[in-house]
């Protein structure tokens, strides 16, 4: 079993839709939960991170962490064609030097 | 945000040759750099972690004699793929982290990646 599971998609939605992206994990030691966006043939860029359980909002993006269920989500409101990319969840045991474990990424396409 | 560059962005080489990939932090000092490999439709797999001035720490299953990592300065790390073979063809991505004081998540800044094709 992989430490982090993520549905690879692809996921196609019409412009303006609400997008829900999810990951599950097995290691209860993870404390930091991140979402990265990766455009084709580019390196990932950090969208947002959350420490422990709870919600965090940044503009059209909301990250949720449910540690009891080992489940994290990223919601994108009012999706735009420019949101089309691969979204990777990532986790680490601490914010310092600890290794970051990535999901496989979900490819999202927002259709105009 | 901080900028990390990689060079080259794309390289094709013959089997048996060695290829060097550079990773630079352009506007900050990177105490730690990471090297990842990403195969199509797969996740980023950490290959090694390097701290400036010390030997790299390799992940299990990564051959340290094949993937040579040098982190000679706070702004430059290099990955050399020695005696490359077709199965080494992949997308190699570096990231750099500046350890800030205090708690919180210390963000990794990723380079744009290097696509290696070994014929």
Verbal overview:
The complex is a heterodimer of chains A (112) and B (119). By secondary structure, chain A is mostly beta strands. Chain A is built from no helices and eleven strands. In chain A, strands 2, 4, 5, 9, 10 and 11 form a six-stranded mixed β-sheet that branches. In chain A, strand 6 and strand 7 (61-66) form a beta hairpin. Chain B is an all-beta fold and 119 residues long. Chain B has strands at residues 4-7, 10-13, 19-25, 32-38, 44-51, 57-58, 67-73, 76-81, 90-97, 108-110, 114-118. In chain B, the strands form two sheets. In chain B, strands 2, 4, 5, 6, 9, 10 and 11 form a seven-stranded mixed β-sheet that branches. Chain B has a four-stranded antiparallel β-sheet with strand order 1-3-8-7, with no helix packed on it. In chain B, strand 5 (44-51) and strand 6 form a beta hairpin. The model of chain B has no long low-confidence stretch (mean pLDDT 89). The interface between A and B is medium-sized, with 25 and 25 residues.
Residue share in helices of chain A? under 10%
Rg of chain A (C-alpha, Å):
13 Å
Proportion of beta-strand residues of chain A = over 45%
Structural class of chain B: mainly beta
Q: Hey, roughly how much beta strand do the residues of chain B contain?
A: over 45%
Order of helices and strands of chain B: EEEEEEEEEEE
**Could you give the distance between the termini of chain A?**
37 Å
- Strand segment count of chain A: 11
The run of helices and strands of chain A is: EEEEEEEEEEE
Q: Count interface residues per chain for the largest interface.
A: A-B, 25 and 25 residues
What is the typical, i.e. mean, pLDDT of chain A?
Answer: 92
Number of strands of chain B: 11
User: Helical element count of chain A?
Assistant: 0
Largest sheet descriptor of chain A: 6 strands, mixed
Give the low-pLDDT segments of chain A.
none
Helix amount of chain B? under 10%
Task: Choose one word for the global shape of chain B.
Answer: globular
């Amino acid at each position: 079993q992989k430490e982090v599971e993520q549905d690879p998609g692809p996921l196609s939605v019409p412009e303006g839709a609400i997008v829900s992206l999810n990951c599950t994990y097995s290691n209860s030691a993870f404390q930091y939960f991140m979402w990265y966006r990766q455009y084709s043939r580019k390196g990932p860029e950090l969208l947002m991170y959350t420490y422990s359980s709870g919600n965090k909002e940044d503009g059209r993006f909301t990250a949720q962490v449910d540690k009891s269920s080992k489940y994290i989500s990223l919601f994108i409101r009012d999706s735009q064609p420019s949101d089309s990319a691969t979204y990777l969840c990532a986790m680490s045991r601490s914010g310092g030097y600890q290794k970051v474990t990535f999901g496989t990424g979900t490819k999202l396409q927002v259709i105009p | 945000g901080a900028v990390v560059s990689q060079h080259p962005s794309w390289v094709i080489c013959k089997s048996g040759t060695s290829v060097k990939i550079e990773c630079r932090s352009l506007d900050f000092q990177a105490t730690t750099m990471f090297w990842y490999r990403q195969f199509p439709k797969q996740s980023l797999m950490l290959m090694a972690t390097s701290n400036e001035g010390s030997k790299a720490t390799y992940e299990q299953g990564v051959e340290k004699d094949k993937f040579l990592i040098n982190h000679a300065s706070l702004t430059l790390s290099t990955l050399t793929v020695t005696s490359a073979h077709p199965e080494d063809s992949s997308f190699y991505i570096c990231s750099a982290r500046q350890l800030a004081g205090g708690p919180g998540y210390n963000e990794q800044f990723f380079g744009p990646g290097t696509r290696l094709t070994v014929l």
